[in-house]
Design brief:
Strand content: 15-25%
Number of helices: 5
CATH architecture: 3-Layer(aba) Sandwich
Strand order of the largest sheet: 1-6-5-2-3-4
Structural class: alpha/beta
Shape: globular
Radius of gyration: 18 Å
């Protein structure tokens, strides 16, 4: 009987550990409706030079309105931000699939000199991305990490993102049979 209890405890512990690895705080996922996906593809083509149908997945570091931030994400050199993320991915062993794309988008237009394709920084024209993610779940956090694919699978993490969360997003979102 004692061995049976120990076995049940082990099964319960392992089951909870496995579940905990897949459950992330402030993370939301949804498949977009066809009209939402079509509009998103048009928006991305026009404003971020991204053809969603030609990438395995798109990741967006999105900075929300300044009023949601307790510190400014709207100042500083974009090159330093890009270097910081490169190191963050490298140290966390995050490997993005071949043919994926990463961009940065800002809600506010202030400091527009930052919005250059050279650093993959873009202004969220007409607040399209902000409105889309608020339909899924509105949270007043300074930043969020978004991944999506050409089939309409969209995932959002509000707040700071960990490398484990990014790896999970890649696993759930990437379409690996893209050319």
């Amino acid at each position: 009987m004692k061995n049976f209890k120990n076995l049940l405890i082990c099964i319960f512990f392992i089951g909870n550990l496995t579940y905990a690895q897949k459950s992330f705080k402030n993370t939301f996922s949804r498949n977009l409706m066809q009209i939402e996906l079509a509009n998103l593809k048009l928006y991305l083509n026009k404003y971020t030079e991204t053809n969603l149908d030609s990438v395995s997945m798109l990741s967006i570091h999105y900075i929300q309105p300044r009023k949601y931030c307790h510190y400014s994400k709207y100042v500083g050199d974009p090159k330093k931000g890009e270097e910081w993320f490169d190191n963050f991915y490298k140290e966390g062993n995050v490997v993005f699939p071949e043919n994926s794309k990463i961009i940065n988008s800002f809600y506010e237009e202030k400091g527009k000199e930052k919005y250059t394709p050279e650093y993959n920084y873009y202004y969220d024209e007409n607040h399209f991305l902000h409105n889309l993610i608020n339909k899924i779940n509105k949270m007043e956090s300074c930043e969020c990490f978004i991944t999506l694919n050409s089939k309409g699978k969209l995932m959002i993490k509000y707040g700071e993102v960990s490398t484990d969360e990014i790896k999970h997003f890649i696993k759930e979102t990437a379409i690996l049979d893209k050319p």
